[in-house]
Amino acid sequence: MPRLLIYLLLIVLSVFLISRFNQADYLKGFHLEKIKLPPGFSIALYANHVPNARSMVLSPAGTLFVGTRNGGDVYALPDMNRDHRADEVIRVLKGLKTPNGVAFSNGALYVAEVGRVLRYDNIEAQLPNPPRPVVVNESFPTDTHHGWKYIALGPDGLLYVPVGAPCNVCEKQDERYASIMRMKLDGSELEVFARGVRNTVGFDWHPETGDLWFTDNGADWLGDDRPPDELNRAPKKGLHFGYPYCHGWRPTRSAVREGKGLRRLFLSSAQAWSPCSGFGNEILHRKNVSRRISASDIYCRTRLLEPL
């Protein structure tokens, strides 16, 4: 056997063994010690065996509902004894189309698929055999590109539902794209709340001002460190947050070349730092949060902390 071929086989074997070793090492634990936390916070395993877990919502009774982007499932993780560990993992829904977003109100679970929002009434009393869904609204676009949704109930009692851009960078005439929409819990009075939002996968409201804070994921394929993802503030309806004309604080080259008017944009962005991805934020306003943490402390893929 030629010497060169032997060397190539040894290289392939070495790469294979290293990958298997790394995989086995990863499966030994969840490496929680590698997660950076602000002072006064700790982290522990709440539940495992929740495949493709994505968005979460906690019911007043202590059941954590978990949506998934892949797999079509929604899980329920009850914690009846309130020991901060799930008693069991129950797959309550299956066969849905990207049931990423979940919200909870008045005993009902709201689930966002790509093109519609469903409601499951009195679901906690029927976890092993959930009720048939009520279709709340099915007038959303059905594009799968950025079609998965994070949803949340606002302080105004409305359900906020984003519609991502159906592309990497493009401009669509349909005003629903690249927006955050909202509607009543019965699906009526659907409207656009904010525009120019490429793909938000997390938002929350300030407990005092009521301002909406939301993440926005920047465009792909422009480099390792650009454009930055964003954390934006929307104090009122009708604001535009830049996409596809701006990334972070800067106009895109195409916007400058084509002479796009940018004066109408409301750019109140606290940029996240690459290579972070803005996969969710939550404003904490509990009295036991350490006062050493300020509202300007932004942690990638975790939370914006707002102690009172």
Give a verbal description of the structure:
- With 308 residues, this protein is mainly beta.
- It has two helices and 21 strands.
- It has helices at 3-27, 253-257; strands spanning 53-58, 64-68, 74-77, 90-93, 101-105, 108-112, 117-120, 134-137, 152-153, 159-163, 179-183, 191-195, 203-205, 212-216, 230-234, 239-240, 246-247, 250-251, 269-271, 283-284, 304-305.
- The strands form six sheets. It has a five-stranded mixed β-sheet with strand order 9-10-11-12-16, with no helix packed on it. The protein has a four-stranded antiparallel β-sheet with strand order 1-2-3-4, with no helix packed on it.
- β1 (53-58) and β2 (64-68) form a beta hairpin.
- The protein starts with a helix and ends with a strand.
Radius of gyration: 22 Å
Measured distance between first and last alpha carbons: 73 Å
- Average pLDDT for all residues: 80
Helical percent range? under 10%
* Count of distinct strands: 21
> How large is the count of helical segments?
2
Secondary structural class: mainly beta
The largest β sheet comes out as:
5 strands, mixed
Question: What is the ordering of alpha helices and beta strands?
Answer: HEEEEEEEEEEEEEEEEEEHEEE
Give the strand line-up of the largest sheet. Answer: 9-10-11-12-16
Task: Give the low-confidence spans.
Answer: 15-27, 254-259, 261-275, 288-308
Strand content: 25-35%
Shape: globular
Name the descriptors.
single chain; 308 residues; mainly beta; five-stranded mixed β-sheet; 21 strands; 26% strand
Give the gist of this structure.
With 308 residues, the chain is mainly beta. 10% of the residues lie in helices and 26% in strands.
